Amino acid sequence: MTDLSLSNQTFATKPAPPNAATTFRLPTQWIGVAPFFIFALMFLILPTIYLVFGAFQRSDGQFTLDNILQLVSDPSISSSYWVSIKISFWSAIIGAFAGLAIAIAIVRGGLPSWTRSATLTFSGVASNFAGLPLAFAFLATLGRVGIVTTLLRDVLNINIYAMGFNFLTTSGLIAVYLFFQIPLMVVIIVPAIDGIKKEWGEAASTLGATQWQYWRMVVIPVLWPSFLGTVILLFANAFGAIATAYAFAGPALNIVPIKLYSQINGDVLHNPQLGYAIAFGMIVITGLANVFYIWFRTRSERWLK
């Protein structure tokens, strides 16, 4: 007993070996993502903070709410918001349903495998095709002397411009925006459709469910969060688009991104503080859209696990 207690005391007085976990080590695991955080800080977070503060300031730096109130009191600004919301809403709805139909066809429609790869490749390119190239492509195709316009007029005796078609109207811009809205929907919704397990259909068939019952009670509830989330993402994508619309009409078109551009860089409507307020309103709308998109996306991922 005496030897045992002495040995215990001896071991107790010995210093503990250094713990490898407590030694200082450079956080090398963060090096890979450091460029992303630096880029986000410099080109997203800091500019956003700057314009939010600028939206509540006068030109002399004093606090004011006049810029925010002018978003509602100025008819041209408020109407530009409504026009942008209308274009974004309808392009998102039409693009979502058209893209969903294409995605279901290439994933579960029994088409050859090459159609899926070809469609996804085109969709990945077309979803990022905007600005001056897209405007030129539509003018060359559906302009007043475009190839499709000429063929419709000469072969089928259909004059789309006599029927009221115009790129500078709401319907005209919706048609243009659909070129990148539909492919974006295809790219995003295909993984969700892939997540629908074949075992679910086999189980429903075993239990005596019809094809319509299977889609109504299984497929649609599973795809619904992904579909709604993608519609919101398409809305935000169209709401912030400026290059294509500006290429068609310049500052004459009354949508929010062009109104913002005119306030920041315009020679006639130059008012940076009001431009900051317009940008702040856009951030609020697109921010809410992205919050709902993340929420719906989380729900759909939980279903598909």
From TrEMBL:
Which BP terms from GO are recorded?
A: transmembrane transport
Q: Does the keyword Transit peptide apply?
A: no
Do you know which Pfam families this protein is assigned to? BPD_transp_1
State the CDD domains in the record. TM_PBP2
Q: Which UniProt keywords apply?
A: Cell membrane, Membrane, Transmembrane, Transmembrane helix, Transport
Give the ABC transmembrane type-1 domain ranges.
Answer: 81-295
Matching entries from SUPFAM superfamilies are given as: MetI-like (SSF161098)
User: Which PROSITE patterns does the UniProt entry name for this protein?
Assistant: ABC_TM1
Q: How does it sit in the membrane?
A: Multi-pass membrane protein
Q: Which family does it belong to?
A: Belongs to the binding-protein-dependent transport system permease family. CysTW subfamily.
The identity of this protein, by name, is Putative spermidine/putrescine transport system permease protein
